[in-house]
């Protein structure tokens, strides 16, 4: 009789523990995600660790997703995902679910030198975000504290010019091969065959400067807080 009671007791305890873990798991799964992407050296991981753990991570090359539950919005939890900067890991983006918004981080001090690489990565991101129906994208221009950093207007202008070059080059190439091929890049263009970040169909895109080094994160966190 005693053995039966002990067995029943442990069964109840195991059931309670299982239910608690199941509840925690489903609450975690239901949380929305903010994904931080960008090129290597832009400050993604430092931004991620500052928001999640209160300190800045020394620069290093990420080779896997970093993910953590953060409470930097008062009373609200969100899953923050730090995405590797190297393009060989970009295929992992398709595996991330429940994305509420995206932070695309760039180095504003080297934008002119690295514009082609940065904008090509943004171009790929826009196409994939459109297919996943992700509307809100922040282009976070880090390192505003450096002398060579550019203002938002100049960064926007460079991105728009380079995006237009990519899209028009691809459209011309496809037209020369086969005029019957459908290509969806024309949704990026306006009626004048140019691109303006503030009126790309289906997107809400902002460009804001800040500095992880100087803890000037409020332009970015204020933007992120709009969606939670």
TrEMBL record:
The uppermost taxa in this organism's lineage are: Eukaryota, Fungi, Dikarya, Ascomycota, Taphrinomycotina
Which residue ranges traverse the bilayer?
6-26
Q: Which Pfam families match?
A: SRPRB
Q: What protein am I looking at?
A: Signal recognition particle receptor subunit beta
State a single Gene Ontology molecular function. GTP binding
Record has Transmembrane as a keyword: yes
Q: Which residues form a coiled coil?
A: none
Q: Where in the cell is it found?
A: Endoplasmic reticulum membrane
Principal location listed in the UniProt entry: endoplasmic reticulum
Per UniProt, the keywords (alphabetical) are: Endoplasmic reticulum, GTP-binding, Membrane, Nucleotide-binding, Receptor, Transmembrane, Transmembrane helix
Indicate how the chain sits in the lipid bilayer: Single-pass membrane protein
Highest taxon above the source species:
Eukaryota
List cellular component terms (GO).
endoplasmic reticulum membrane
* Record-stated family: Belongs to the SRP receptor beta subunit family.
| Listed InterPro entries | P-loop_NTPase, SRP_receptor_beta_su
């Amino acid at each position: 009789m005693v053995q039966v009671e002990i067995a029943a007791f442990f069964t109840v305890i195991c059931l309670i523990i299982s239910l608690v873990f199941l509840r925690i798991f489903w609450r975690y799964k239901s949380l929305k995600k903010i994904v931080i992407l960008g090129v290597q050296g832009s400050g993604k991981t430092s931004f991620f660790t500052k928001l999640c753990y209160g300190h800045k991570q020394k620069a290093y090359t990420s080779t896997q997703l970093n993910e953590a539950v953060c409470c930097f919005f008062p009373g609200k939890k969100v899953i923050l995902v730090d995405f590797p900067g190297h393009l060989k890991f970009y295929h992992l983006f398709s595996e991330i679910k429940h994305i509420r918004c995206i932070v695309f981080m760039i180095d504003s001090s080297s934008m002119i030198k690295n514009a082609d690489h940065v904008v090509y990565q943004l171009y790929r991101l826009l196409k994939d975000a459109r297919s996943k129906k992700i509307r809100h994208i922040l282009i976070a221009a880090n390192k505003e504290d450096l002398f060579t950093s550019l203002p938002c207007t100049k960064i926007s202008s460079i991105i728009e010019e380079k995006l237009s070059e990519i899209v028009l080059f691809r459209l011309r190439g496809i037209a020369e091969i086969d005029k019957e091929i459908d290509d969806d890049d024309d949704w990026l263009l306006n009626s004048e065959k140019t691109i303006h970040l503030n009126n790309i169909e289906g997107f809400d895109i902002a460009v804001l400067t800040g500095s992880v080094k100087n803890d000037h994160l409020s332009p970015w966190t204020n933007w992120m807080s709009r969606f939670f």
